[in-house]
Structure prediction request, 69 residues.
Amino acid sequence: MVVVSITLGFGVALVGGLVGYLAWRDRARQSPAEESSAGRAARANAHRHEAERHAGQSHQTTRGQVHGP
Prediction:
């Protein structure tokens, strides 16, 4: 009975260590450079779109004063 308990404990420890190592390895993995540059390009495009949309609003009110046409 003692041998069975030791064997099962060793197997559980081995599987736990393997799962922990694989989780650590996948979390440490870096994304490819293409994905990083694509993400930066998407954020820049969204920012440019927002700036153009904001600039297109010619009627602004600041502290009760109307600016624009």
Q: What stands out?
A: The longest helix spans residues 2-28.
